[in-house]
Amino acid sequence: MIPTAEKFIEEKYSDVPGELNDITDLMIEFAKFHVTEALKKASEKAEINCDCDGDEWCKGKINKNSILKSYDLDNIK
User: Fold this and answer.
1) How far apart are CA 11 and CA 40, in angstroms?
2) What is the pTM of this model?
3) What are phi and psi of 63, to 5 degrees?
4) How many Å apart are CA 54 and CA 74, to the nearest integer?
5) 3 state SS of 39
6) In sequence order, which residues have a C-beta less than 8 Å from that of residue 3 and are 6 or more positions away?
7) What is the pLDDT of residues 14-66, one digit of tens each?
8) Residue 58 has what pLDDT?
9) CA 2: distance to chain centroid?
């Protein structure tokens, strides 16, 4: 299960003094931005694997690896 930003901060930075609301809000905004960008890239780069012979109609399968690699995690800094 993916933790909320608040829970993440509590678990990773329990020794940080003071109010965490500003940090939490910034983390949420940052994560939403990157998820939006990742989904855009995934929609552009997703590939379908299809093994068809000639004009035969076939049901393709989404290449999950093309989606998982569509957004470079180095973009998150």
Assistant:
1) 30
2) 0.58
3) -80, 95
4) 41
5) helix
6) 11
7) 776 666 677 878 888 888 888 888 888 888 888 887 776 665 666 677 888 88
8) 67
9) 12
